[in-house]
């Protein structure tokens, strides 16, 4: 019997360092997983590189701004954040013990690095989180929000704390450096000539008159202050939560997925979180006052009002996202998403301030150019989230009724009527909010121009009269054909395979399927040959009517499809069924085909359409999650076929991440045409090919704790560089340095291999940031 040879790995699973104190009988041990060490090194190194760019910046003599003092305080602010992040990593992965250090692994080098066991550990965060002995210290290296528990987060091998702490400042630094570069240029370019949009608004009053570019520079200083404020709050949550947990380590009656320091009552958790939020916000407010009194320039560009509003809203979104999107985010993803929501709120508030009280501000403090594109993005993205918040009573009641079994209702026939009434209330309320509240606000911001007419006229102002309508028709055809094709393929393939069960708990957790015959008063459905169709599976006791409705709709759909496709089925008895990875990567390829023409020929129009698509995705998720009649079950069945282990929570966000990753390069608005394609190249080309190549021919893993291979990373890098060159040959991007671009894409490929965060969200933002900082 031959022994199974372990696959080749470039790095060991863990890195361990040991040191003994010279006098005391104590020893210090530092142990960190290689993946986390590599991810931390790349993120911190990128931010340090940004600091070096700021220190070397020389403003132009024609600029009216004196930025040397501003840059020095920004450097200090970011240096302090980096130092505190490093100290946190050292603290959470260090142990001080007496005597000889205990060997945690089978093969161990007492000098510097410990090698992993010969059999690689599965890359599953669930085993790491549930087995604290795998960590190098008695403390868990996972960070948590105040009053949160492990079961609130997505299972992952890494909490992603540095993603939540440093990604916001990294993106803010890239935006600031981009505007500073243009400010020091003799011929600044706000946007490429392909952006067909009216000039950005400019505010001029008694407090000062700044150009559009100078106002943008000052606004992005404010963005960095806001990012470090949010990072400080997130780090304070993690530290205080960890400190409190150490006082309850001796408790042995803690259920799996819970923490000893967190009460079981959801009401108590909420009240404790609210109290903690108020305390943290007031502390941030007091800190700002103290810094201002002593003349310290940290948080110099953020006002007292912005400090208290940003602190309150950031913590509010952290809690709401964690509660509604249960088991969807890691801590790093949660911090990054909530930071994005906070920046959108601050832009919304600052635009309103400049419109209502223009004398109180010398410029429009927005982090992107104040064009109608920004106004429509806030109306669409923020408006869709606001609509859900305002209609939350109807949504929650709809989900509650859909989950309630018929046998527990006094009048079972009233359930369908109640769901129809709630759906009518939702659609009517949504219409009133969109047309009334959001429409009136957009009209006001556009200078009393009707937003609907503005969109119609702007639709005809493209490169030619039919270019933008043609893009809409092109996107509609591709989207319709893709959805229709997948609906047909999935409906037919269900006869030859079992359903995807990754997301079955998204409607109602805990339902059990049984094939036991049950009495039914429904008419028997027959196919075209007259033979009765088999009854759909019935939910056992404890199941919900929402799932019964889902199965009934699926059963009816199968009945109609069988009657319509008997001839096709006779010719095609073996329906080809793609695996889950292939089904998901299909949409990555679809994004390339759909969005590349729009970004190449009309990026401004594509910018607006990305915002509209985000709003449509949000409304579709409302319909699916809250089981809005009659589309909730249909949307859930379709989405359920494309879920992987990262979509095991209540909400489905993969399509949001894919859309945001592709759109982020446009939404951040930089002059470089190459940077606008970053999201498409990373997700549509690089990530898809890396996954396919890594799974098919990948033999050399980066570490034993990951399935990512070196072959996949090479495919990621080479495919992006080749596609960028193809875009250059066709004239869609300006000339660029191939060597520099290759090096930066390679760094992103390594981050993709090491990080356990959702790469659809983090990778495009990371590559875009380092490309901006490197002037690529």
TrEMBL record:
Transmembrane feature ranges: 72-91, 271-291, 297-322, 334-353, 373-400, 421-444, 471-487, 589-616, 622-639, 651-668, 674-693, 714-733
One Gene Ontology cellular component: endoplasmic reticulum membrane
Stretches the record annotates as Disordered: 114-136
Coiled-coil features, chain-numbered ranges: none
Record keywords, A-Z: Endoplasmic reticulum, Kinase, Membrane, Transferase, Transmembrane, Transmembrane helix
Protein name: dolichol kinase
Entry superkingdom: Eukaryota
PANTHER family per UniProt: DOLICHOL KINASE, TRANSMEMBRANE PROTEIN 15-RELATED
Keyword field contains RNA-binding: no
Topology relative to the membrane: Multi-pass membrane protein
Keyword Magnesium: no
Gene Ontology MF terms in the entry: dolichol kinase activity
GO biological process: dolichyl monophosphate biosynthetic process
EC identifiers of the protein: 2.7.1.108
Record's subcellular location: Endoplasmic reticulum membrane
Main location: endoplasmic reticulum
The family this protein is said to belong to: Belongs to the polyprenol kinase family.
Top EC class for this record: transferase
